[in-house]
Amino acid sequence: KDWANVFICDRENRDILDELRLFYDEADSLTIYIMVVLRASYRGMKDRLMERQYQETFLTEMYAPVKLDKNSVCVFMRDLGRTCNRISRFMKHRVSMMDMDDHLIIDGTLRQDHSEVDSLSEVSRRTVHTKHKDVLVMYGYSLKKREVVCSQVFPGNMTDGRAVKTFLEDNGVTKGLVVA
Questions:
Q1: Helix, strand or coil, per DSSP, at residue 1
Q2: Helix (H) or strand (E) holding 110
Q3: Which residues are 150's β-sheet partners?
Q4: In contact, 139 and 106? CB cutoff 8 Å
Q5: What is the separation, in whole angstroms, between the first and last Cα of the chain?
Q6: 44-79: per-residue pLDDT in tens?
Q7: What sign does the CA torsion over 80, 86, 91, 93 have?
Q8: pLDDT tens for residues 94-128?
Q9: Under 8 Å between Cβ of 154 and 120
Q10: What is the pTM of this model?
Q11: In whole angstroms, how large is the CA radius of gyration of the chain?
């Protein structure tokens, strides 16, 4: 069984599992955490291969078993995405736990998204001529921890100023200096 990748990732990020337990039950917390460790340890991890990779690592020895077959992963991810309030509280908690000597770096990027069912896909001011639909993905990165603390998706046609203001408010960022 593969050991090094998952061991190092687990050693550096185990505190996230404790934070997840504050907002999700034990089984869901563990499933989220193991999926994250697998995706961080093995680049380009596909849902359909997650169970196999999980069985081939020491995660099966380190934690209680979780179900990661392709159907379970898809259903779990769909249901997880529907818990917006819980996700929001989790990210606000992570922001509130940042030290005073830490810095939250906020960045955003437009990503093409031509989904017919996604209400956030819009033609942005940058793509008005090409008619590409975009979503604006913003994230807050902790300089001290070197990890993403919070993230949010906005319509592709939202102005940067409005998106940053909403991002700060929604994620409970109340102190700091914004350089734009």
A1: coil
A2: strand 104-112
A3: 140
A4: yes
A5: 47
A6: 999 999 999 999 999 999 999 999 998 999 999 999
A7: negative
A8: 999 998 888 999 998 888 876 666 666 666 666 66
A9: yes
A10: 0.83
A11: 18
- Locate 123 and state its tokens: 């033609």
DSSP H/E element including 93: helix 84-96
Neighbouring CB atoms inside 10 A of 54's CB total 21
Q: Could you write out the DSSP letters of every residue in 10-74? A: HHHHHHHHHHHHTTS-HHHHHHHHHHHHHHHHSTT--GGGHHHHHHTBTHHHHS------HHHHH
Q: ∠ CA(97), CA(103), CA(105), 5° rounding?
A: 110
Q: Which residues contact 66 (CB under 8 A, 6 or more apart)?
A: 27, 30, 31, 34, 54
Q: Which of 5, 125, 2 is nearest to 55 (CA)?
A: 2
For 171, the token pair is: 């994620």
Question: 171-174 long-range contacts, Cβ below 8 Å, gap at least 24?
Answer: 171/88, 171/91, 171/92, 171/95, 171/140, 172/92, 172/95, 172/96, 173/95, 173/104, 173/106, 173/140
